[in-house]
Amino acid sequence: MLDQIHLLAAVTVLGVLEQAYFFLQVIHARRVFGISPPKISGPPEFERIFRAQVNSSEYFPIFLALLWQAGLFFHQGLAAALGLLYLYTRYCYFMGYRASSSKRLTPIYFSTGVLWILVAASALGILHFFLSHYVGLNVLQLLTV
Fold first, then answer.
1. How far is CA 71 from CA 9, 36, 80, 128, in A?
2. Residues with Cβ < 8 Å from 36, sequence gap 6 or more?
């Protein structure tokens, strides 16, 4: 069982560490700009860091659900590779947004594309599971004939 999920677990841990890094960047920015919680407004530099972190946190549960569904129902290796690519694009998004709001656009579009690929892999994998287990139709077997 563990050999079927170890890559997904590793990407999950990396994702949690990335989220922690983003949280720490907000804490650091609060200290630098003198913004005490619960305030969320301040200089544009602080607000960009704060928004980048919040946006990344909002997408994280979606990413985790899709990562695990694609990995369990479609292919663990592909899902893990897409997961690493997603984490990299999220890092690029964070750093780009931190520098300028316009530098966030390319990474956010790319990371959204990766999420859509994970959606497709999840849907195909789950569809195949339902068809093979409940209808008795093995699509992969039909395609190789």
1. 10, 41, 7, 14
2. 30
The C-alpha atoms of residue 50 and residue 45 are separated, in whole angstroms, by: 9
Catalytic site residue from 30, 48, 98, 104: 104
pLDDT tens digits for range 37-79: 999 999 999 999 999 999 999 999 999 999 999 999 999 999 9
Query: CA-CA distance, 74 to 97, in Å (whole number)?
Result: 33
Residues 30, 31, 90, 98: which is the catalytic one? 31
**Length of the chain in terms of residues written:** 145
pTM above 0.90, yes or no: yes
For 41-93, give the DSSP string.
Answer: --SHHHHHHHHHHHHHHHHHHHHHHHHHHHHHHT-HHHHHHHHHHHHHHHHHH
Tokens of 106: 């390319």
Asked about 51 being catalytic, the answer comes back as: no
30 is annotated as an active-site residue = no
What CA–CA distance (Å, rounded) separates 132 from 126?
10
CA dihedral 114, 119, 120, 121 (to 10 degrees): 90
